[in-house]
C-alpha cells in the first residue's frame, strides 16, 4: 500500500510541474469548457524584449493593461454587452501615453497625430470605423458612433471630424496628443532614413510600423465584439491608412466563429485580410481558433511580400476560447475569463 501511495504522490508532483510552465512562452490560452463570458486585449506587438525594458516601465505597462481589462471584465460580469466592454476597455488604453493610440499616438511625417479606429458587432455584423482624425479624443467612440448613428461603415478626415462634433463626442486641441517620446521616435526614424541606418539596432525604429490597441470580448448573451484603435505608423505620409479601420483586416467579429483585433504592419494585414481570414478558416475549414490563428500569423502572414510581415492578433471564439498569436519578439496582452482569472503578458520569452 505504501508503494502505491508513493507512486501516486510522484504522479501528482509531475502533473503539477507541467502546469507551472511560464505563461509568457505560450501564445494561446484556451478554456476547455464554454465560458459564460471572456475578454482579451492587446497593446501592440513588436520588438518588446525584457532586456530593453526597465522594471519600472514594465510595471507601468502591466498596471495599465490590468486596469483596462478589468474595466471591460466588470461590464461583462454585470451583464453588459461585449460592444460596451470593448469600447470602454479601449478608452483606457487610448487615454494612456504608453500605447500608440489616442493620447500616445505616433507622429506623421508632417509632425501631426492622426488616428484610425474600428469596432464590429458579431451578432449583426454591423461595423463602424474612422480614419485620419486629429481632434477626436477617443477614436473608438467615433467608430462606435459611425456604427450606431450613421448609415456608413467608414468615415475619414474632415468628414469624420464633422460627424464627431455633430454626435457630441469629446474634441480636443491636437496638442493633447503630442508626447515627447513619440516625437523623438519620429526624429530618429527620419534620421535613420536620411542616413540609411539599419533599424534593427534600435527598438523604437523597429516598432515604427507597429503599435495599436485592441480588444475582443464575449458577453453573457453569447455575442462577440471586437475593436481596434491606433495612431498608425511613425513617419507615415500622404494620408496613409493602415489596417486598424479596415473591417476584415484590423477588426472582425462574427457570432458564428470569433472576434479578432490585429496589430502589426498594416499594409500586410490589409493584403492578407488577417482578421477575417481567421474567421473564414474556422467557418469553412472547421479549424479551431487556435489552429486558425496559428495558420494565419505563423504561416500565411510571413509569406506576404518580401520582407517577412510581422505582427499579431488577439481573438476569442463563441465558446470563450482565447488566442494570443504573434510572430514578433513580444506583444502587450492580457486576458480575463468568467472565473476572474487574470493573465498579463508582454514578452515572447
UniProtKB/TrEMBL annotation:
<protein>
    <recommendedName>
        <fullName>Isoaspartyl peptidase</fullName>
    </recommendedName>
</protein>
<dbReference type="GO" id="GO:0006508">
    <property type="term" value="P:proteolysis"/>
</dbReference>
<keyword id="KW-0378">Hydrolase</keyword>
<feature type="binding site">
    <location>
        <begin position="263"/>
        <end position="266"/>
    </location>
    <ligand>
        <name>substrate</name>
    </ligand>
</feature>
<keyword id="KW-0068">Autocatalytic cleavage</keyword>
<dbReference type="InterPro" id="IPR000246">
    <property type="entry name" value="Peptidase_T2"/>
</dbReference>
<feature type="binding site">
    <location>
        <begin position="240"/>
        <end position="243"/>
    </location>
    <ligand>
        <name>substrate</name>
    </ligand>
</feature>
<dbReference type="Pfam" id="PF01112">
    <property type="entry name" value="Asparaginase_2"/>
</dbReference>
<dbReference type="GO" id="GO:0016811">
    <property type="term" value="F:hydrolase activity, acting on carbon-nitrogen (but not peptide) bonds, in linear amides"/>
</dbReference>
<keyword id="KW-0645">Protease</keyword>
<feature type="site" description="Cleavage; by autolysis">
    <location>
        <begin position="211"/>
        <end position="212"/>
    </location>
</feature>
<dbReference type="GO" id="GO:0008233">
    <property type="term" value="F:peptidase activity"/>
</dbReference>
<feature type="active site" description="Nucleophile">
    <location>
        <position position="212"/>
    </location>
</feature>
<dbReference type="InterPro" id="IPR029055">
    <property type="entry name" value="Ntn_hydrolases_N"/>
</dbReference>
